[in-house]
Design a protein that fits this description.
The complex is a heterodimer. Chain A is of the alpha/beta class. Chain A contains 14 helices and 8 strands. In chain A, helix 1 crosses helix 12, helix 2 crosses helix 3 and helix 2 crosses helix 4. Chain B folds into 2 domains: 104 residues, Fumarate Reductase Iron-sulfur Protein, Chain B, domain 2, CATH 1.10.1060; 80 residues, no CATH class. Chain B is built from 11 helices and no strands. Chain B is globular, with a radius of gyration of 19 Å. Chain B starts with a helix and ends with a helix. Classes of the chains: A alpha/beta, B mainly alpha. The interface between A and B is large, with 58 and 56 residues.
């Protein structure tokens, strides 16, 4: 299995542990990743707040570069915002030839042409659909027994394009969590919004969404996410949310490949829990207490 | 007459608000005012006008009223409304188009989200990839309000301590995506 890897800007900075653990886990599962040549920003949700055409041209540039690499494999994207932007280009330019034409006029400035031949895949799609869950289970050497994990999908890997999961009641992480030896924490917030950039542009509204999620996840041992924005919002604002609700939220928010890395016994420098902002002692102790299978 | 239908306006002339709103209105013509969007929106409780009401204002040509409301600036692009709309309307895209109008018209009450997006895009234009600290610095500078960066300082310090971001004075960069940005603007201004 081979994919073109588009990390996106967050994975080089605030979500570094997401990229490191993604590469490590996929490597251990025998998946080959080839990083996209000279990739640039997908525009996140900022481009469409400014310019419609730019919000297509920026992700399209990356797909066009991927086509030029002539590897003829899918593009794998771990960040949900990047994923949706690339997916949107794939989807909408097929439906609207005049949009494709405009996008290609813009891409001429980079000597690129978008043909629309490649498929964009979310990391979770690849983990849940391409890799047999038995392969994941067979790599587990330190099962996460006794840990209740709340799967948190967020929005943009699920909606508006329902590609690999139910966009209202997502379940694709559950077999993976079970294969790791953990149990799935039952909650109905998996596909609820984390507030995204409202934490910066309208924090009074954003913090309510964050607090609502943390409150519902309180009895889980950890939340796992597949989106840098969700992860940052849930992890970094726990103090502020606690103050708001007069509660004490203290819950680790890990990326799915980090959780997989822990169960697969990957070395610390491939899981990089040291980069997480919130790893309570209670969680660390539970990890330490595990038996090797 | 053409302007009223597709919002294209006369080339070279700045578009009127009505011209800018025409394409958004066109997207929403099939709205049946059922309110599924408002019921699905995670941020509806914080909005001064529900998404359903916003569409009504648009359809009844009350464009100016729309821009007194913070509603579209509170859209966190979760796509719940788009997914559930019984008429299959691209409601999240409509919210984004309204954000674009607010940015183009530089309307004061939306300065916080508009400058946030603009600062992000500026960093992308300069370097090709967003530099998170540069982007936040540009944003803070544009807001000219010392209270905003103060609120982010504890998080910024934590992220720096982890080596995830580093202090960065905004720089001109190579202008990596200059030409691409210019071309997109040129095409959009013409259409």
């Amino acid at each position: 299995m081979k994919y073109i890897y588009y990390p996106g800007c967050s994975l080089e900075g605030t979500a570094a542990e997401y990229s490191i653990s993604t590469m490590a886990v996929l490597g251990a599962l025998g998946v080959e990743l080839v990083e996209l040549d000279d990739w640039t920003c997908c525009g996140a949700t900022a481009a469409e707040g400014i310019s419609h055409l730019l919000s297509f041209a920026l992700p399209a540039r990356n797909i066009a570069v991927a086509e030029k690499m002539k590897l003829n494999c899918d593009i794998l994207v771990p960040c949900s915002a990047c994923y949706l932007n690339l997916k949107r280009v794939e989807h909408e330019t097929r439906l609207d030839p005049s949009l494709l034409k405009k996008v290609n006029q813009v891409l001429e400035t980079e000597n690129l042409v978008l043909k629309g031949k490649l498929k964009t895949r979310h990391l979770l799609d690849v983990l849940a659909s391409d890799i047999p869950v038995s392969d994941i289970a067979s790599r587990v050497i330190k099962p996460l027994e006794g840990l209740r994990i709340a799967p948190y999908y967020g929005c943009q890997c699920l909606r508006p394009y329902a590609v690999f999961d139910d966009p209202e009641e997502p379940v694709s992480m559950e077999p993976i969590i079970t294969a790791l030896g953990a149990s799935v924490y039952e909650w109905d917030m998996g596909g609820r919004c984390c507030g995204a950039s409202l934490m910066s542009t309208a924090p009074d509204a954003g913090i309510e969404l964050v607090a609502g999620l943390l409150e519902t996840a309180q009895d889980a041992d950890a939340v796992v996410t597949v989106c840098p924005m969700c992860q940052m919002n849930l992890e970094a604002y726990q103090k502020r949310a606690s103050k708001k609700r007069q509660m004490h939220y203290d819950i680790p928010v890990l990326y799915l490949p980090q959780l997989m890395g822990l169960a697969m016994g990957l070395p610390d420098d491939q899981v990089r829990m040291d980069l997480n902002l919130c790893v309570p002692d209670a969680f660390r102790n539970k990890l330490m207490a595990r038996q090797t299978a | 007459m053409k302007a009223a239908i597709d919002g294209s306006g006369e080339p070279g002339k700045p578009k009127t608000l009505e011209e800018r709103l025409a394409p958004v209105r066109k997207m929403l013509l099939a709205c049946i005012q059922c309110g599924t969007c408002s019921g699905s929106c995670p941020n509806a409780w914080a909005m001064d006008s529900s998404p359903r009401h916003l569409w009504r204002l648009l359809l009844t040509h009350n464009g100016e009223e729309i821009f007194k409301s913070r509603t579209f600036a509170l859209c966190s692009t979760c796509y719940s409304c788009t997914l559930r709309c019984p008429r299959g309307l691209p409601l999240t895209d409509a919210m984004s188009l309204l954000k674009q109008v607010a940015a183009a018209e530089n309307i004061y009450i939306y300065r916080r989200s508009v400058r946030f997006y603009q600062s992000f895009m500026e960093s992308v234009r300069r370097h090709g990839r967003v530099r998170e600290m540069e982007f936040m610095t540009l944003y803070f500078m544009s807001m000219k309000n010392p209270m905003i960066p103060l609120k982010f300082t504890p998080l910024g310090m934590k992220l720096m301590a982890k080596g995830k971001v580093s202090f960065e004075i905004p720089s001109k960069g190579s202008g990596k995506l200059d030409a691409l940005f210019r071309k997109a603007k040129e095409i959009e201004d013409q259409s």
